[in-house]
Amino acid sequence: IQRRHLGLAAILLLALAARVVGLGYGLPWLFYFHDEPQVVLRALRLGTGDLNPHFFGWPGILMFYVALLSFIGLFVWGRVTGLWRNAGGFANAYFEDPTAFYVLARLQSVASGVWTVYIAHGLGSTAYSQAVGTGTALAMAVSALHAHYSHLAHPVIVLTAFAALGLWACVRLAVDGGAHEFRIFAVALGLGSLAQYHAALLAVPLGIAMLLRIAAEPKRLWHWIGAAALAGFAGLAIHLILSPFTVLDHKQFLHDLSYEAVKASGGSSGPRVPPHGCRTDEATRAR
């Protein structure tokens, strides 16, 4: 057992190294990956007191709020060490050199990426064997694509982590899981959908897991159906509690969702503009 734990620890250290090396690439210039300013600037905008992200396309909302918390920590640290005296000095620091802000946002992806490697080990071990779990974790640790996106302030790696967590819960449910796995699934669904809406596809493995349990325990048909439905509603509740503006700013939400749907289908979505009857900061400035 100790050897197995040491092996997993070594794989996680390898994953961390692959995601930390080059973390500052492209900084302080912001031409490397065009979506990163979307995360950093919207998180900074939340710091003005308006907690509505005014953007629901990815949605990336979880990343915005976590970035905001990290920026608050940076602001407090700067005040204590005398780097800036007030919010104005903090804002000037961004324009002088935004490196710290982008690295903090990128660290979310680093942490999510390494966590995904750990989850991959558990998923492979639960579904097949310890050897498969180790091989899966190692493959994920050195995956060039996964490591590449783990360097970026973009919600795709956060989504991957929660999707993998939800899939692991579904595999355990299919085998011998119960209430604990349903709770894990609800958290994965709720937080994953706050990263990107694709997390809703976790309903597919959950449905398969329920079919397997119903086949093994046909007398508990309604128990499994009810538990799965409750987990789904709990995931939705987590999403709405942490992102109430999905409802409060439903016009912008529906507008952004429609925009992304048209773009994903290959249609001509045109420029992203505010929904009819709404005035965003950009529209106000344009007038």
Topology:
Layout: H1 2-20, H2 36-46, H3 61-81, H4 87-96, H5 99-127, H6 130-141, H7 144-149, H8 156-175, H9 179-195, H10 203-216, H11 221-242, H12 245-248, H13 250-264, H14 281-286
Q: TL;DR?
A:
Helix content is 72%, strand content 0%.
Count of runs of 4 or more consecutive helical residues: 14
The structure class reads: mainly alpha
Q: Hey, roughly how much beta strand do the residues contain?
A: under 5%
Order of helices and strands: HHHHHHHHHHHHHH
Question: What's the end-to-end separation, in Å?
Answer: 66 Å
Spans of at least 5 consecutive residues whose pLDDT stays below 50 are: 279-287
Folded structure, characterized:
The chain has about 290 residues and is mostly helical. About 70% of the residues lie in helices and about 0% in strands. It contains 14 helices and no strands. It has helices spanning about 1-20, 35-45, 60-80, 85-95, 100-125, 130-140, 145-150, 155-175, 180-195, 205-215, 220-240, 245-250, 250-265, 280-285. Helix 1 runs parallel beside helix 6, helix 3 (about 60-80) crosses helix 5 and helix 5 (about 100-125) runs parallel beside helix 8.
